[in-house]
Predict the 3D structure of the following.
Amino acid sequence: MVLKKRLDYGFHGYQIPVIPRAPRSVRRRGAHKKSVEDHQICAFELLAAVAGKLLQESESSASSNASEAKVQPCHMDGIKKERSEETKAFRTECLDQGSCVESTFIPERVAGEQNFKSSVEDHPNLENDSIITSSDFSKKVDCDLKLGICNNKTADEDNHFNVAGGSHPSQNICNGKTETAAKRQVGDETKWSQELTVANSPNVKHQVGKCMNSKTVINSDSSVQLSLYRDPVSSVSFPKHRNNVNLGIRDDDDNSFGWNKLSTKFRAFRPQARNGYRRIRKMLQSKYWRVAPKLRDYEVSNTNEGMRSFYRNRKFIHTRDRCQHEAPSKRRKLSGRRFVVAYDQEASSESISNSPEKGEYRRSDGVLDKANGSSTSVKVHKKPKNSSVKFSIKSFKVPELYIEVPETATVGSLKTTVLETVTAILGGGVRVGVVLQGKKVRDDNRTLQQTGISHGGNLDSLGFILEPNFTQVIEPSKDSPQQLQHDTDEKFIRPPASPLQNSGPSNAAIDPLPATKMEKQNVSNHEIILSPKTPVIDSKAVVDGAGTESKALVPVAPVGAEALAMVPVSQKMKRSEVSQRRTRRPFSVGEVEALVEAVEILGTGRWRDVKMRAFDNADHRTYVDLKDKWKTLVHTASISPQQRRGEPVPQELLDRVLSAHSYWSQHQSKQHGKHQIEPLQIMDAQAEKYEA
DNA sequence: GTTAGGG
DNA sequence: CCCTAAC
């Protein structure tokens, strides 16, 4: 079942170079590679299938015992999804050990939490390890992933950092139930204080009352988890470094599968490299370890995509597996004499259970009820019957935090700092952001349907994230309108687009103005805004959170000597935090004109020059953008007008595009005997002028 | 940091 | 637009 579904989805959307890639020319022929990957993943498929089957059986048995079958009535789809999740989790755990990329996955069903608990309570026998019920499974996984701030299992315990609060053996939470897979992962991990994860631990004897769980997710501790995993590598690479050690602890958000992950990696290294260090260092720079960043990006970008990401994650898994053998580590970062802790909780998004049948996730408490139309709800019932949409939020994405503390700080203070930070985030105003297909949905007044969150819609690309609860969002400084060709003869110069401070749904059908405006228009029309624009305020703003709309929740202020300074990583990872792509900025005719002209003169191999010449003031247009645009222009020009989309580009320009394209194709983008191509005489003239 | 291409 | 390999 699982297998089938997965295949249906396919997962070749992106390639994950696990190993040094072959030359571009070779890579181009992707067909082969794909098949290879398929095979490689095959094993996992089987594993998944088996796991799925086991789970299935377990589930059924469990449900038969439980007073109320948890997922019993679940629609096939629902079951599949869940199973898939669990399977994934399972696999994750299995493959995780030793992997350079630790990942976390928590197949929890928020909405079903209550059920789990009741089930457990009512049926003590479920505790039996021999029986792994679905809920059991989830529970376990939850334990490690959720509460865990996992320290790796390896020697140098000395440098071992327990960034987390009290060291509660996982058993405490998991109630001594650790199964192989989970155990490895959770084994010696230190649990974050349970405060962070209420609920979710069915086994905890004195679990928090249901009332606790009935809180809105956003307020429920269970919604946020931080798990810090120590990077296995550290131990491998740096066997011991007890004294004068700089610990670079930073999180690589490439550790989980997207749903529930808030993990952090720890790695330690000494400032003074030893021989081994050097080598390792080098190794890290090799292509092998490049896997990491790749994964990271991959993972991150998928985070918001819910279910869909799952299928793609197969590759991820695969990669991770290989990682164990090939690349034991990732990047390290040294920060002066202090060690830096940066954990970027990249939690995931939720997972949606789209079940036509009712009662599959029966929620006894009021979790849902509290949903004030906001995404904090676990489930949202909208409209009668079919049109209702049910949500099961696995977890929220938490903004990245960057903690910097002096070397002299105690571990305890570090713990405290981290805890405070988290607490501040949870306690301090946070709001929930809804992300659909990687874009933030801002219009709170829109209905789910209007927004595209419908029963049968892209629920798989829906995500929720926590954001600073700063009401006033500083108006992003509109990209300064760029004048094309600021210099000389520019017949296409356009008046600077007005910043459009207040973007009301501009109905101006077609605004000839440059991208800036158009984009804005776009935004307003869709009521969706992509990535945060460059905040007016920069790093400074971080403290008050304004500016960087979603990221940088930096509740903690500067610091006293020993206090720990928390600094948002905003600058560097501003965008990657959420991994949102830049807002789309369709090229205006004027821009196209400028581009064409520049290319006619400069050719197609000097994008940087093109950029400087025609788009020097257009900060949002990189030379890569220009190159890409040219690429599309060439394509556009070569297809029939009927197939073209977007703002029509004057045929005249397209003709010039083709001319220039063919011309430069033959002239190798540079030296060229003039007068060779008739149609471009004019161009030649220009070129000459330029070259002169 | 740029280019050139595939995704 | 993103992401990379290759320069």
